[in-house]
Amino acid sequence: MVVAAVICVLALALAGTVAYGWRTGAFDFLRGANAASGSGTGAKNAADGGGNQSLNRISSPKPDDSAAAQARRLVSAMSMTERVGQLVMVPLFAGTDPSALASTIQNDHAGSVLIIGNWTGGTASVKAAADQLQGYAPSGNRLIIATDQEGGQVQHLTGTGFDVMPSAVEQGAMGTDQLRASAKTWGSQLTAAGVNVDLAPVLGTVTVDRASNAPIGALNRDFGLDAAGNAAHGVAFVEGMRDAGVETSVKHYPGLGAVTGNTDFTAEGILDTTTTLDGSEIGAFDTAIRQSSPAMVMMSLATYQAIDPANPAVFSSAIIEKHLRGDLGYDGVVTSDSLSAEALSGYDATQLGVRMVEAGGDLACIGQVDYAEPILRGLNMQASADEAFAKKVTESAVRVMTLKIRMGLAQAK
Q1: What HEC string does 185-233 produce?
Q2: What's residue 65's pLDDT?
Q3: CA-based max dimension of the chain
Q4: For each successive 10 residues of the chain (413 residues), what is the average pLDDT?
Q5: Which of 175, 186, 192, 227 has minimal Cβ neighbours within 10 Å of its Cβ?
Q6: Residue 392, SS3?
Q7: Is 146 helix (H, G, I), strand (E, B) or coil?
Q8: What does the CA dihedral 347, 342, 271, 217 come to, rounded to 10 degrees?
Q9: Cα(96)–Cα(2) distance, rounded to whole angstroms?
Q10: Residue 134: exposed, middle, or buried by beta-carbon count in 10 A (0-12, 13-18, 19+)?
Q11: Which of 184, 185, 233 is nearest to 205 (CA)?
């Protein structure tokens, strides 16, 4: 009787162990063996359906559908010429038929257009041009269409449908909530005109006599405040435009408030001797970038003696890669001020885009039509000859396409 009782207890314990192991999957290898031998298929499917689903979840992770991942897939399918094309913004001047850019967009794959000059026909005329330009672009990779709509003396688009924008100094006198609301209104007018990026606001802090500061102070292009005030108003402008569906580019990094020459028109008086990486002037930019994540940061064409005396900011890896990308962690699109400006007239035109990309920049803004071809040619030649440079082109194209995806201009298949 005792032996029988012991055997009974052992049998019950063994049965419990088997049941527990089967329930927790400890004997899954046995079910796998059954599947491999083709026996017991019906019973196996009924018993281990939950287990297989668990295994499938482990072995099949959800695809990365982030904008950056989509951009990498899109760029991987592009030829190098197509990638290079995403790195240029070509100009369309007022009075020029958009068909003048058809070949540049269709054959050279230019991915962005700058609406420049005095467009006085209102939102309807700009929208007609923008629509025609978009018609030349692939349906899955639409154009970034940008303009300089700062206010005051720098407002390229006027006429019916566009408010007369106050100067930035006048905007600086507004409260930040009021400025954000106003920027939303101005942005809605750009949206109605088919423009999706405003190359504004200016975040330079003027540290010299305003009248002598030709690019900014003399034109009232800054908010007219100290660095902290300029940063706060810059954030309000960026966020207001974004509220209207328009992205922005803060400019001209790391500031033009301490020079006397206007880089658009001269190569003289454009050496900044006071701006430092830990100073309040660059701090206005860095604060606004951290707080508002603008789509673009436009690089200055001036040279900064205390940071990189050998290169203008647009060609300075110390400023772009080390500080802006590294220290600040900015992963958006770094664009140039116009590479056709007088400040860069001493450089070979074919090397302008190359130097920008080598320094870590992404998008070559071109203000003169005849510069587009040599800049594109130089980029393509360097990408063909230099594998490391071609990799940089690819990285920049991914950043541009990431922005386009976020803006709804492109989508991975």
Answers
A1: HHHHHHHHCCCCEECCCECCCCCCCHHHCCCCHHHCCCCCCCHHHHHHH
A2: 86
A3: 113
A4: 42 45 44 40 41 52 86 97 98 98 98 98 98 97 98 98 98 98 98 98 97 98 98 98 98 98 97 97 98 98 98 98 98 98 98 98 98 98 98 98 98 80
A5: 175
A6: helix
A7: strand
A8: -160
A9: 106
A10: middle
A11: 233
Looking up tokens 């309000």 gives 236
C-alpha angle 380-384-387 in degrees, rounded to nearest 5: 120
For the record, the structure tokens of 266 come out as: 């001269």
CA–CA distance from 367 to each of 67, 117, 173, 412 (Å)? 29, 10, 31, 31
CB-based contact 372:104 (threshold 8 Å): yes
Contact, 319 vs 306, CB < 8 A? Answer: no
Contact 234, 201 (CB under 8 A): yes
**245 token code pair:** 């569906």
The structural domains of the chain, ordered by start, are 67-407 (3.20.20.300)
Residues 6+ apart with CB under 8 A from 378: 348, 349, 350, 351, 352, 353, 354
Residue 342: exposure state from Cβ atoms within 10 A (0-12, 13-18, ≥19): middle
- The predicted-structure confidence for 225-271, as pLDDT tens digits, reads as follows 999 999 999 999 999 999 999 999 999 999 999 999 999 999 999 99
pTM metric for this prediction:
0.85
* 3-class secondary-structure state, position 340: coil
DSSP codes, 342-391: GGGTTS-HHHHHHHHHHTT--BEE--SGGGHHHHHHHHHHHHHH-HHHHH
Do 265 and 337 contact (CB within 8 A), yes or no? Answer: no
Cα gap 117→114, rounded to integer Å: 10
Residue 114: beta bridge partners?
91, 146
pLDDT at position 413 is 72
